[in-house]
Write a structure and sequence with these properties.
By secondary structure, this protein is mainly alpha-helical. It has one domain. It is built from three helices and two strands; from the N terminus they run ααβαβ.
């Protein structure tokens, strides 16, 4: 289970995405710092919390985050 610091960083990113990507780069940097401190390079994101949870939205997010040094994976959606 992720620590509270990581959860807070992810919630800040979800909030930023809902607010038209407001301060997204700063929030990605904060996430990257937290991941580095924990020896991680990737983060699992809940696709249900994305503004555009379809394939195109997920791929766009992965690409944007990857350019900033964070690998994004997506949690499996329970059927």
């Amino acid at each position: 289970m992720a620590n509270p610091e990581l959860n807070n960083a992810l919630e800040a990113i979800y909030s930023s995405l809902k607010n038209d990507n407001e301060d997204i780069d700063a929030r990605i940097l904060a996430l990257k710092i937290i991941l580095h401190a924990q020896g991680m390079k990737s983060v699992e994101v809940d696709p249900a919390k994305l503004v555009q949870p379809n394939r195109q939205g997920r791929k766009m997010m992965q690409s944007y985050f990857k350019k900033r040094g964070v690998t994004v994976t997506f949690a499996e959606v329970a059927a």
